């Protein structure tokens, strides 16, 4: 149990989980693409989708999106009208998922899906609502509740959602400069910084973008080693937890995995190059930031990096050789690793239990409120392909329970019993919790996590903030209370819904939904 535990939730959810987002009603929105052939899940009531622009099926009576209910372990089909292949997404402050772009007739489309209790709510689509084709673009929620949409194939620019009348795109030359012969600049890594600017990483290079004044205000050294880190040489990235108890606030980016810059072309010719086995950390808040490199236990391309409630990072899914793309990956990496940012140098990685299912291209992973990681997808083929191939299309859904969920830690596990549902910036609030075996208050922290939109080895909008607290009290029995404060600014934590976790001695509670406003 100290290497974690896998559990199969469904052998088939009918579609391949290429894109995944947790909503505030504890439901997951999952979807693949429409130009994929028929899925294994029919649309309800004999409904069919008719699309004369579809490149595979003009009339399709199967679903390519589902709504999955975590509590009941059940799902229902949703209807997507235009192609969502390799698209992007963000959750607005009111909890509505805004999904942007895709391929073919979907590349200028925005789609919305609001959390609802009804069983008939579905996608709404808005054609021609993007100024440019957004295929392999990345989104980031901003402090004012808008969304910035950056890049895409042959798109060296960015734009905002919602789009005001007459607004277009703004050129970002950096994206063109970062492109090489294999591209390797798609799905750029975006992280909102505490000063309100945007960290942008593509291929091997990174900048700070002042998107209000439309100018690059800082450029960092290239990451060491020469390996490319963005699609199709897909590594992954997280902004490490922002701790408001530390002054001045430290801002640090972690990037792990990737591939040689020619790995995609080599794979196309039948040679699968060894993936990158390094991680790089860049402390942006330093006066002279420099990359510090570390070796992972194994090479990995197409891995997903997920922030865990205790501040650790799990790296899950992926391949040991090749690149992202059709038939381009080999040697599946079925063992996740957990990275402890505060561990000693050379002692930060732990290798976890192996899954029995290879998940490489088009696989996904998201954190859910009870602390498990849900994992799905895996399709390295142009269409659904279940036989006669080394790695068949995978329609299953699994969960991985990190070691902190082991019964071994039950006596240290806190349980939140009282929490305010709405938190204001800098406003004081109380968290009451129970724990059978309390250690000490110095081992308690209150953390908020923004649930991200996950696709193609990157979790857009993912962030964790360790909230400031100043006193704690023993209430009686096994009940305690901690006084904490809402995040300092919307740049630290943009408005919207978060999961709040109380962590005691490294063991997190289940998350409670709160709204920051």
UniProtKB/TrEMBL annotation:
Any coiled-coil regions, as ranges: none
InterPro entries reported in the protein's UniProt record: Gal_Oxase/kelch_b-propeller (IPR011043), Gal_Oxidase_central_sf (IPR037293), Glyoxal_oxidase_N (IPR009880), GO-like_E_set (IPR015202), Ig-like_fold (IPR013783), Ig_E-set (IPR014756)
Gene Ontology CC terms, in alphabetical order: cytoplasm
Domain of life: Eukaryota
Domain Galactose oxidase-like Early set: 413-516
Domain Glyoxal oxidase N-terminal span(s) in chain numbering: 18-404
One matching Pfam family: Glyoxal_oxid_N
SUPFAM superfamilies (UniProt xref): E set domains, Galactose oxidase, central domain
Keyword annotations from UniProtKB, A to Z: Signal
Record's protein name: Galactose oxidase-like Early set domain-containing protein
């Amino acid at each position: 149990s100290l290497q974690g535990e896998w559990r199969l939730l469904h052998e088939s959810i009918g579609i391949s989980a290429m894109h995944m987002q947790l909503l505030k009603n504890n439901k997951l929105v999952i979807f693949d693409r429409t130009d994929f052939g028929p899925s294994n899940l029919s649309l309800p009531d004999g409904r069919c989708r008719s699309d004369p622009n579809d490149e595979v099926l003009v009339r399709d009576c199967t679903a390519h999106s589902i709504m999955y209910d975590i509590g009941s372990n059940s799902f229902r089909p949703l209807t997507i009208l235009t192609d969502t292949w390799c698209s992007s997404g963000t959750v607005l402050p009111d909890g509505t998922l805004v999904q942007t772009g895709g391929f073919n007739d979907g590349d200028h489309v925005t789609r919305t899906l609001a959390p609802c209790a009804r069983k008939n709510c579905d996608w709404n689509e808005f054609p021609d609502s993007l100024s440019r084709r957004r295929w392999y673009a990345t989104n980031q929620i901003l402090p004012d509740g808008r969304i910035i949409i950056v890049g895409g194939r042959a798109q060296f620019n960015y734009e905002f959602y919602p789009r005001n009348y007459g607004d277009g795109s703004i050129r970002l030359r950096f994206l063109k400069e970062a492109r090489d012969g294999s591209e390797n600049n798609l799905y750029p890594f975006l992280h909102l910084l505490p000063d309100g600017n945007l960290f942008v990483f593509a291929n091997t290079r990174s900048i700070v973008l002042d998107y209000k004044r439309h100018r690059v205000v800082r450029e960092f050294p290239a990451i060491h080693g020469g390996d490319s880190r963005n699609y199709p040489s897909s590594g992954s990235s997280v902004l490490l937890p922002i701790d408001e108890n530390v002054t001045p606030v430290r801002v640090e980016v972690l990037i792990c995995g990737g591939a040689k810059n020619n790995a995609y072309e080599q794979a196309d010719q039948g040679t699968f190059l060894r993936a990158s086995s390094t991680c790089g950390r860049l402390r942006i808040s330093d006066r002279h930031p420099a990359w510090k490199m570390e070796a992972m236990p194994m090479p990995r391309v197409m891995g997903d990096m997920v922030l865990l409630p205790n501040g650790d990072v799990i790296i899950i899914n992926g391949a040991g050789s090749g690149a992202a793309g059709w038939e381009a990956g080999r040697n599946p990496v079925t063992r996740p690793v957990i990275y402890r940012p505060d561990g000693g140098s050379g002692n930060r990685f732990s290798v976890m239990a192996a899954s029995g299912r290879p998940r490489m291209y088009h696989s996904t992973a998201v954190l859910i409120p009870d602390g498990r990681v849900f994992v799905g997808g895996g399709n390295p083929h142009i269409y659904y392909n279940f036989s006669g191939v080394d790695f068949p299309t995978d329609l299953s859904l699994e969960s991985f329970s990190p070691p902190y969920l082991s019964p071994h830690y039950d006596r240290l596990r806190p349980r939140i019993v009282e929490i305010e549902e709405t938190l204001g910036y800098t406003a004081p609030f109380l968290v009451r919790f129970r724990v059978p075996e309390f250690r000490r208050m110095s081992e308690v922290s209150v953390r908020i996590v923004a649930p991200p939109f996950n696709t193609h080895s990157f979790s857009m909008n993912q962030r964790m903030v360790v909230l400031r607290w100043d006193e704690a009290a023993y209430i009686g029995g096994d009940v305690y209370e901690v006084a904490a404060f809402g995040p300092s600014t919307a740049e630290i934590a943009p408005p919207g819904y978060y999961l709040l976790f109380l962590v005691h001695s490294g063991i997190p509670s289940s998350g409670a939904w709160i709204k920051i406003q």
